[in-house]
């Protein structure tokens, strides 16, 4: 999961915020917002799943609050969109069997510019895609070709393995 620090900003959710000043922590509202994007079929399915499943919606709202608190505890200020993106990622991965089995990507645009894009691995590849934390160097070296090995590993795969090994 990615956490991106940013300057405080007025959220696009301010118009849907209750009088308490808290944003609308509805997964469906977030997915339907202009900030969120995924393939059209994925967006439609996410809206359906979160709209029909109270447990998923409650998990999303709880995770959103936790993301905001985590950032605050670290002395960071993140946008509501960033926290909602992180919350959505967490809920999807914790309930992976309820979502489309293939890999897909979720993307969120931030109000002040910039974005976060997070791949959700396919169900059958999720366990294999997570490198061993016991020895991160071995995870990376396993992907790199050895002398005389004709297989080439794309740099993006090697970088992903290296950066995710420290999670």
Class derived from helix and strand content: mainly alpha
Largest sheet: 3 strands, antiparallel
Order of helices and strands: HEHHHEEHHH
Span of the ends, CA to CA: 9 Å
Strand content: 5-15%
Helix content: 40-55%
Shape: globular
Molecular structure report:
- The chain has 167 residues and is mainly alpha-helical.
- Helices cover 47% and strands 8% of the residues.
- The chain is built from 7 helices and 3 strands.
- A 3-stranded antiparallel β-sheet has the order 1-2-3.
- Strand 2 and strand 3 form a beta hairpin.
- It is globular and about 35 Å long.
- 24% of the residues are buried.
Give me some keywords for this one.
167 residues, mainly alpha, disordered N terminus
Compact summary:
The protein has helices at residues 27-32, 40-52, 54-73, 80-94, 123-129, 136-143, 155-164; strands at residues 36-37, 104-109, 115-120.
Topology of this structure?
Layout: H1 27-32, E1 36-37, H2 40-52, H3 54-73, H4 80-94, E2 104-109, E3 115-120, H5 123-129, H6 136-143, H7 155-164
Antiparallel strand pairs: 1-2, 2-3
